[in-house]
Amino acid sequence: MNRTCLLALVIFAAAAFVTPSFVTTAHAQDMAKTAPKPAPGASEAVLEQWNEIGRKLIAMAEDFPEDKYDYKAAPTAGTFSQRLIHAAHANQFFINAVLGQKMPAMDDPKREQFKSKADVVAFVKKSFADGVAAIKAKGDKGMSDLVVDPFSNEQTRINDFAYGFVEHSGEIYGQLTVYYRTAGMVPPESRPKK
Q1: Taking a C-beta distance cutoff of 8 angstroms, is the pair 184, 106 a contact?
Q2: Which of 122, 134, 137, 142 fits 98 for a cystine, CB–CB 3.0-4.6 Å?
Q3: What string of H, E and C letters represents the secondary structure of 61-76?
Q4: CA distances from 147 to 136, 160, 162 (A)
């Protein structure tokens, strides 16, 4: 390797190491000029997560073609509509526990109860809206209140209980992305933003 190539390589390497630290330092200095955004309250933090996964499932429920609502990604899997019904029904366990109401039946409602796609969409929307109302009714202080988890029969804090249902809905969301892909479709969240 000649001296010119070696010198160019050294200069390139030095620039590669110095530039990122300079950019990071400059960005950090800019951030120091503005006050940090305060942390959300306990109920606001739960609501952000609850609303985000609710938005994603509702978007899928509204987007998936009605003639494919009884589509199965695999012969042993439930249908697209059954997975949505399951997610919405599961939310009722959270809502009812938080509001001190009787638990719903353990079995999901039957698909036949929902005559159309619109009925399923309404059920999903209502479950997330009712969850929002329950979380708001508790407020920040109420997020530390204890409820009994009907699945484990142990006490848990409402905010921890809520995150469990957010995770459950996220798992359903992941399953439904497979339904989209195996049906030859692209899920709403994976489409290019307009």
Answers
A1: no
A2: 134
A3: HHHCCHHHCCCECCCC
A4: 16, 10, 11
Distance, first Cα to last Cα, the chain: 50
Residues forming beta bridges with residue 72, ordered by sequence position = 79
Q: What is the pLDDT of residue 25?
A: 60
Nearest to 58 by CA among 182, 189, 159, 190: 189
| Residue 128: closest CA among 179, 180, 176, 87 | 87
Look up the CATH superfamily of 42-190. dinb family like domain (1.20.120.450)
pTM of the model: 0.81
Q: pLDDT tens for residues 65-111?
A: 999 999 999 999 999 999 999 999 999 999 999 999 999 999 999 99
